[in-house]
Amino acid sequence: MPWPRLYPKIFDFNFQNINSYGRKSTFLCFEVERWKNGSFLNSLKGVFRNQLNPGHAELCFLDWFCDVVLSPHVQYRVT
């Protein structure tokens, strides 16, 4: 499941300009909008972090999107 946002403490730890153990995480920030009544509506925002299983943040997002959000009858815009 995605985080609702990237928390300040995690941001500060991971995005300091130093090379140190534990600072090699990948974060994927996303916004998913659904088409409804002639326009895109802002519906879902969040953050995924790389994990041991399934791994890359991108794969975590795609697994979540396909399993939880995706419907064949809805048009989406993903940023």
UniProtKB/TrEMBL annotation:
<dbReference type="GO" id="GO:0005634">
    <property type="term" value="C:nucleus"/>
</dbReference>
<keyword id="KW-0479">Metal-binding</keyword>
<dbReference type="GO" id="GO:0046872">
    <property type="term" value="F:metal ion binding"/>
</dbReference>
<dbReference type="GO" id="GO:0016554">
    <property type="term" value="P:cytidine to uridine editing"/>
</dbReference>
<dbReference type="InterPro" id="IPR050610">
    <property type="entry name" value="APOBEC_Cyt_Deaminase"/>
</dbReference>
<dbReference type="GO" id="GO:0051607">
    <property type="term" value="P:defense response to virus"/>
</dbReference>
<protein>
    <submittedName>
        <fullName>Uncharacterized protein</fullName>
    </submittedName>
</protein>
<dbReference type="GO" id="GO:0070383">
    <property type="term" value="P:DNA cytosine deamination"/>
</dbReference>
<keyword id="KW-0862">Zinc</keyword>
<dbReference type="GO" id="GO:0004126">
    <property type="term" value="F:cytidine deaminase activity"/>
</dbReference>
<dbReference type="Pfam" id="PF18782">
    <property type="entry name" value="NAD2"/>
</dbReference>
<dbReference type="GO" id="GO:0045869">
    <property type="term" value="P:negative regulation of single stranded viral RNA replication via double stranded DNA intermediate"/>
</dbReference>
<dbReference type="GO" id="GO:0000932">
    <property type="term" value="C:P-body"/>
</dbReference>
<dbReference type="GO" id="GO:0003723">
    <property type="term" value="F:RNA binding"/>
</dbReference>
<keyword id="KW-0378">Hydrolase</keyword>
